[in-house]
Amino acid sequence: LSDGGLAVALAESAFGGKLGASITIDFQKNEKNISLPLNARLFSESNSRLLVTTQKHQQKAFENIMGKDALLIGQVTEQKQVKVFFQQQSIIDISTEALLNAWENGLEKAI
After folding, report:
1. What whole-number distance in Å separates Cα of residue 61 and Cα of residue 40?
2. Among candidates 38, 74, 32, which has minimal Cα distance to 53?
3. Contact 75/32 with Cβ under 8 angstroms?
4. 3-class SS of residue 9
5. CA 40/CA 107 separation, integer angstroms
6. Helix, strand, or coil (residue 61)
7. pLDDT in tens, the chain (111 residues)
C-alpha cells in the first residue's frame, strides 16, 4: 500500500470499479505483534502490504497460495458506499461518489 495507505487504496478500488466495500480493520498488528493505532491502520504506507479483491469462488485458492500472509478483511458490495469498522463501530461510511469527488477536486476546493 502506498500513497495514503489502506484507506486510499480502498477508496480508489471502490470508485474505480463503481462499487462499494465493507471492511473491518481490527486485525492489524505490526511485525512485533503490537496493535497499531487507528491512523496507522488506515494511512500507513507499507510496501509489504497490498489490497486484493477476488471473486468469492476464488477466495480459498488465493488464501491457499498466500498462506498466513493473506487475511480476509471485508467484501466488495453492490452498494456504492465505503464502510470501515473498527472495534465493532462504524468509523467511515461514505459514498464512492463523494470519495471520487474529493479525490478529483480536493486540492481545488482547498485553495
Report:
1. 29
2. 74
3. no
4. helix
5. 23
6. helix
7. 778 888 888 888 888 888 999 999 887 555 555 677 888 888 888 777 788 888 889 999 998 998 888 888 899 999 999 999 998 899 999 999 998 888 888 766 655
